Amino acid sequence: MMKSKEDAVLFYQESEPHSFTIGMLMVLFIVFLFGVFYVSLVFYDSTWSEEIVDKELSIKPSKQLTKLRVLESERLNQPIQWVDKESGIVRVPIQIAMSSIVKKYQK
After folding, report:
1. How far apart are CA 69 and CA 18, in angstroms?
2. pLDDT (tens digit, 9 = 90+) per residue, 4-41?
3. Using CB atoms within 10 A of its CB, is residue 91 exposed (0-12), middle (13-18) or buried (19+)?
4. Is residue 88 part of a domain?
5. Which domain holds residue 49?
6. Same domain membership, residue 102 and residue 72
7. What phi and psi values does residue 48 have, to the nearest 5 degrees?
């Protein structure tokens, strides 16, 4: 049994969208995004605070590293001495060598 066009009923939403509700949801979403950004920023800053970095860097070096640094310092600061007199190679303390290089390139 077929209905005629007059019997057909159209169903649709007759009301307008709730623009105030949609606008408030958009504002709340934007506030939420800024809140997430701010919390992330505060969390990041707290994890990289100076106290934590200083604590991590204040770890004492091992005995081997300390011994190596002492040996390097002794070697770099030995008095002037000949390494190979025939070739004219001389060992010079690091501070004297650096200052002579700086003077050489300042000219």
Report:
1. 74
2. 666 666 666 667 778 898 999 999 999 999 999 999 98
3. middle
4. yes
5. 17-59
6. yes
7. -110, 25
Dihedrals φ, ψ of 76, to 5°? -75, -20
Same domain flag for 85 and 44: no
Inside any domain, residue 99? yes
Average the pLDDT over 53-71 and give the result: 82
Q: Which two tokens stand for residue 68?
A: 């190596």
SS3 55: helix
User: Does the global pTM surpass 0.70?
Assistant: no
Under 8 Å between Cβ of 69 and 60: no
* Interacting residues of 82 by C-beta distance below 8 A, sequence separation 6+: 89, 90, 91
Do the bridges between strand 81-84 and strand 89-91 make them parallel or antiparallel, or are there none, so unpaired? antiparallel
89 three-state secondary structure: strand
